[in-house]
Amino acid sequence: MFLKLSSDETLNSNQLYFYDVNLKANYKINQNNRIYLSGYLGRDVFEMQDMFGLDWGNITGTLRWNHIWNSKLFSNTSLIYSDYDYQVSIMNNDNDFSLTSVIENLNFKQDFQYFINDKSALNFGFYSTYNQITPGQLEVSDDAGVPPLDLQDKYTLESGIYIGNEWKPNQKWNLSYGLRFNIFNLLGPGDFYAYSEGSVSDTTTYSSGEIVQSYFSLEPRINLAYIVDPTQSLKVSYTRNTQNLHLIQNSNSSAPTDIWIASSNNLKPEISDQLSLGYFKNFADNTFQFSTEVYYKWMQNQIDLKDGADLMANEYIEGELLFGDGRAYGLELMLKKKSGSLSGWIAYTLSRTEKQIEGINQGSWYPAKQDATHDISIVGIYDINPRWSLSATWVYNTGNAVTFPSGKYGIGGDVQFYYTERNGYRMPAYHRLDVGATWNIKKTDRFESTLNFSIYNAYGRKNAFSIDFEEDVNDPTWTVAVKTYLFTYIPSITYSFKF
Q1: Residue 171 per-residue DSSP state
Q2: How far apart are CA 196 and CA 274, in angstroms?
Q3: Read out DSSP for 317-351?
Q4: Nearest Cα to Cα of residue 293 among 236, 214, 211, 366
Q5: Residue 228 pairs with which residues in a beta bridge?
Q6: pLDDT digits over 17-31, tens only?
Q7: Predicted local confidence at residue 472, as pLDDT
Q8: By CB neighbour count within 10 A (0-12 exposed, 13-18 middle, 19+ buried), where does 109 fall?
């Protein structure tokens, strides 16, 4: 709405908006049966004139039946549908193109909770999810010089069973442990390839419903908490997780060109094992709460692109991938004030997320794209009186790791960028301040309303959305870095009511 008010055509022709719609209905059949129905529809759109555009959204719905079998046994039966799509558009003079990825799934879950006694509760159940994945549909302009392309859809079926127990033997100890057995099947129809040194060495065609590849995994977890005294406690936990849908990201591109692909005959499931240790302390008559936690995560079958890989609508994308290990580790600190006129918290995380893949950075460890060394958030809420409150939030995080060109060279009159270290550079640090004031207009047993005034990014920080490298218009031998930011400060007014 604000962009349209500008007289600058480079601004008023851009698009920047989002919307979210939530619907929920509950029906009580009787004392032992309830039906819950919920739905969500949302979309985010961002388009920069003559540059690039992003468009993504999700439609999802859940139908859940809650049943009380007896005083000890409860169950939830859920049917969940989701349709997520993501589109990236690149505008380059007349050579415009867009790439669309879609993940559509249908999920059935059956969950049980059985209370053995007042010290122990059992959770168990099973699930099954059917996915249809469209890794990429390439649409191009008439003058693009390349044909449109639809990559083959992929079909998967992921099922499993799980069991867990929560046990409190006494006032000092809490123990939670469980195990999940997961089965992942890649299904036909389609052509599936085998690769040798990145090139297709064999092609096998499968019909609809045929199993192309299966993976079986066990995922244990255990969490142990010890209550030292009423004000402090210790916690230690171990968790294994398996991931069968993989996000492929191009760290060379300033505009996101991410795609999702499934485990296959070439891609094994990604596996992580995480160990964490935490300490929690309340003091000043429980007014303040301090917590700290350290963690270390080992990751297997990590994925990244080869140098110079072709990501855009590539039917043979699996031949562009390399595989290796990963690790993530860090320290989290939080100090929270829970009561009084002034409440809020200060949180800090020091962390690293790294990969080691043969063929990238000479086999040395390098930062993953989502690696951020420092993450800080400060939140304050001040209640002036029962009707008025003020709030402020300041956030800071280290810029994501990214691969920028280290130099350039000419070939046949064209300038090519030279890249050295993978993810060896950083986007500028991100930080902003949000402030707000809330007026509680009315509150009764049957009606409640509030009015909120806020400013997002109050000091107008121009946080970088992308950085591109272009020839200097005045001297083509020079290269300039061009930063694109979405907005500075955004004022807003929100009216909320409940009845």
Answers
A1: S
A2: 33
A3: GGGGEEEEEEEEEEEEEEEEE-SSSEEEEEEEEEE
A4: 236
A5: none
A6: 889 999 999 999 999
A7: 86
A8: middle
CA distance 263 to 133: 12
Both tokens of 172, joined, read 């000092």
CB 279 within 8 A of CB 231: no
First-to-last C-alpha distance (Å) of the chain: 30
Total residues found in the chain within this entry: 499
**CA dist list (Å): 75 to 32, 34, 440:** 10, 11, 39
Work out the burial of residue 210: count CB atoms within 10 Å of its CB; fewer than 13 is exposed, 13-18 middle, 19 or more buried: middle
Which of the four pLDDT bands, split at 50, 70 and 90, describes residue 77? very high
Prediction pTM value: 0.87
Which residues on adjacent β-strands are paired with residue 125? Answer: 111, 162
| Cβ-proximal residues to 172 (8 Å cutoff; 6+ apart), any chain | 226, 227
The residues spanned by each domain of the chain are: 343-499
Give the helix ranges, DSSP H, for 246-328: none
